[in-house]
Structures are given as C-alpha cells and as structure tokens.
Amino acid sequence: DQQVKQNSPSLSVQEGRISILNCDYTNSMFDYFLWYKKYPAEGPTFLISISSIKDKNEDGRFTVFLNKSAKHLSLHIVPSQPGDSAVYFCAASGTGTASKLTFGTGTRLQVTL
Amino acid sequence: DTEVTQTPKHLVMGMTNKKSLKCEQHMGHRAMYWYKQKAKKPPELMFVYSYEKLSINESVPSRFSPECPNSSLLNLHLHALQPEDSALYLCASSYDRGGNQPQHFGDGTRLSIL
After folding, report:
1. Whole-number Å distance between alpha carbons of B40 and A50
2. What is the pLDDT of residues B39-92, one digit of tens each?
C-alpha cells in the first residue's frame, strides 16, 4: 500500500524554466511533508518542508505547495538549473508516527541546456 | 558536505562474515535512524533510536543488529547476511523524534553480499 505516490518517474525541463514535481498521499494522519534531492552515490539531501497548518513555504528558488483537501503537494523550482538534475523524493510523517518518514518512489528531474 | 558521516562507503562481504557499519553525527541530534535502499526504490526504515534507546524496529531480521554507544554514534552489526541484503544502507539523524523535524542523511554504505 503506497501511501505516498509520485506518479511521474521522470521529468525533463529546459534551463531557466519552472520545474513542477508532484506528490499525492492517502493517509490523512500525515501532517508534515518534506522534499529531498538525491544525487547518485550520495544520500538524500533535505530541501524544504511544510506543515499542514500552511499551504505554502518558500526557500529561495524552491517553493512547496500543500493542498490538504486534495491530499496533494508540489515542489516548484524556479528558475531550473542544470545542477538541479537529480532524483526528488517526497516524504510525509504524522504526529502519531513522529519522525517515521514515508517516502514516495521518486521523480528523476533532468534540466537541459 | 554531509553532516552525517558513514563508514565505510563500500563493503563487500561473504555470507558468513561479520562486519559493522558506522554512522556519526555532531549536530547534537538525539534521534538516529537506519534505512535500507534498493535500486530505484525509496528508502525503507529499519531502526529508530531516540536518546540512545531503540524505539522502533521495523521487523528487521536478527542478522541486522543495531547499537547506539552514545548520542553521536550509531552502528549496524551484520552477520550471516543473504545476497538479497545487498543494498545502500543510509543513516539519518534529527533533532529529536518530535513532529516537524527534518531528518538529515549520510551518503550511505553500499553493501554487496557475495
């Protein structure tokens, strides 16, 4: 039972354009959501998070949007840069399962010149 | 540069060997985690330590034995592993197990079982 889903296994975006990565979840107990970036041969790097009391959180080029009613979140990267090419994992946790992250299957982002 | 350091980066071992994976963090975090990641899959939680005590064991086989000697160190002792245990083993830490705490990962140990 995949409680966190990233339905696009890959995405290709031109440099300078916006990258939008999507994530859906099914467990209504999740109240904290994170995005991680992973390069080959490295561990996941924490990018940005959002708690369920917000619907938007911004950090530089990265913005995460949360739509609780649709159980959907997205990561926007503007402008996209070649160094953003990586696998992006969405993750979620709930108060009752604090610190127990449930990961999505990942989306591979390729930023082309 | 990652603030969670894992050694070794690569490990090849036979099914009868005993080896250990090590993880260290100096961020003052009180929660530490072991994950297993297979190719093209998300990380899967194995163990959680909180304040040096084991708080979650995700039904991991006993051939994997975690140890937390102090608040900065986390070990994973390996014995009699199977070929299907070949994977990337990731360590992570967070400030504590309270809600809304991001976990920070090391770069992992790539383990191959012959």
Report:
1. 25
2. 888 999 999 999 999 998 999 999 999 999 999 999 999 999 999 999 999 999
Nearest CB neighbour to B105, from listed A44, A49, A98: A44
Contact A43 B102 (CB under 8 A): no
Spell B52-61 as b/e; 16+ CB within 10 A means b.
eeeebeeebe
Backbone angles phi, psi at B72, to 5 degrees: -100, -15
The three-state secondary structure class of B33 is strand
CB A79 within 8 A of CB A19: no
Hey, are the CB atoms on B2 and A43 less than 8 Å from each other? yes
**What are the beta bridge partners of residue B83?**
none
Distance CA(B22)–CA(B7), nearest Å, equals 5
Per-residue pLDDT tens over the stretch A56-105: 999 999 999 999 999 999 999 999 999 999 999 999 998 655 568 999 99
Alpha helices in A8-108 (DSSP H): none
Q: How far is CA A27 from CA A49, A53, A106, B31, B106, in A?
A: 17, 16, 18, 24, 28
A67-97: buried (b, 16+ CB within 10 Å) or exposed (e) per residue?
A: eeeebebbbbbeebeeebbbbbbbbbbbeeb
